[in-house]
């Protein structure tokens, strides 16, 4: 694709963007690399693209490249007089999703419309890499220190961290490659990454954190930017690390080796067409132990978030890695319109519930799936879809462990919700009149989400009150927004636990509110799980904790619940 020049209307700043192909929406993940250089001309960008090997890497790795232009006075890395380049950086990051600078059309709830989503590119926020050259390297290190949540990892050619940036630094983890830097800069990043011993790896001296080796500092002698250097840094660092929104300034997590994961990939496949009339896309992961065995195993369906896709869902949740260890099959489907799930069952939109059920039945017929152990999960819009499929087809589903749902209702503000006017909920309650189903639910939410602390008339209250009603659990009144319960979760559980399950991130912890049915067996069928400091993202242990809960249950042929 040809190089694009874009001028941002709001700030008047200019930038060049290079997209890796003509197709803006695919089932695979795209990352981004932003390059801060001293020049503002097109020729300097083209040299980096061709001589520096960036165009080749972008095409191979599906990376979107951004080349913001400095103002005439250069990069304001020391917060002196001139433009606020730290604030401008967020605008540059946002701007790379489309060639023009027209605002996205949004629905009343603030989420972009389908037409807006489908027209944009989608670089994921967890894989945003930064390269700085010359004074651009100083700016890159300032950004790494002051807004680390906006950067995954940095390559700095000749830069040092100035004193003004040190004063404003938030001291968060940041993987860096430093070429020709000074000892004070090296020491700063070694401190924030809590690195220990140094090893020699090729041309690099590498310090790593003992618990999380992705928190690293790589140093080498000064050298020019070349295709060989870019490939080396990509292989050793950029391709290995992602930054998740699971801490105040993000956490370093490993990237998935997509080729090694061994997915069976079905792209625009028509084998479900008899039931759903439209070709669909989904990824399947079958563990090696299942391929070699002859017994039926559990199935986990994971539904992506709004604007995401199967590869992004796999990278976020890594449910298939849990499946490899635990011996279950994982499926990552793509919504019919390739942006979001029609979880509200709008009759004018695609029947995504029908697609979900048809795919489950296909998996039951063609894979060694235990029909009593089908589980659902999903993130955000996909978490809503997991709930909808579970409540409408409980005879197929043994349990649900969804993540970060803001349905039903509005994100971040109170509103009125009538279950009888929410189509899936109304239908689910009608179905319960025929048979009084129960559905085990493990729901994970973050304390940096928009509806935390949970309050009356929030999406969270409507969601957990519905599941309590569904499962014959006592429904207590949620405190108003002005007087939230100190537990932060709205209504405390009958049993409360604190979990610290991550060795890689010992600072992560979860508060679990467990609720029990009024049935004779008093089963724990609803769990509100708050992860401290998590934003709208999937944390390292979300999938594993969800699996540990749902794997207890099976759906018996008569519709009742049994224990696995």
Can you describe what's shown?
The protein has 564 residues and is of the alpha/beta class. It is built from 18 helices and 24 strands. The strands form five sheets. Strands 1-2-4-3-5-6-7-10-9-8 form a ten-stranded mixed β-sheet, sandwiched between helices. The chain has a six-stranded mixed β-sheet with strand order 13-14-16-15-17-18, with helices on both faces. A four-stranded mixed β-sheet has the order 19-22-21-20, with helices on both faces. It is globular and about 70 Å long. It starts with a strand and ends with a strand.
Say which CATH homologous superfamily of the largest domain is assigned: Alpha/Beta hydrolase fold, catalytic domain
Main beta sheet:
10 strands, mixed
CATH topology call of the largest domain: Rossmann fold
Query: Residue share in helices?
Result: 25-40%
Strand line-up of the largest beta sheet: 1-2-4-3-5-6-7-10-9-8
Q: Distance between the terminal alpha carbons, to the nearest Å?
A: 53 Å
CATH class of the largest domain: Alpha Beta
* Average pLDDT figure: 96
Annotate the secondary structure layout:
Elements: E1 4-7, E2 14-18, E3 30-36, H1 42-50, H2 54-61, E4 63-68, H3 85-95, H4 114-119, E5 123-133, H5 135-146, E6 153-157, H6 163-168, E7 176-179, H7 183-192, E8 198-201, E9 204-208, E10 216-220, H8 227-238, E11 241-244, E12 251-254, H9 258-261, E13 264-269, H10 273-276, E14 280-285, H11 288-292, E15 297-303, H12 310-317, H13 319-326, E16 329-334, H14 352-366, E17 369-378, H15 381-392, E18 399-400, H16 423-432, E19 441-446, H17 459-470, E20 495-499, E21 510-516, E22 524-531, H18 542-550, E23 553-555, E24 561-563
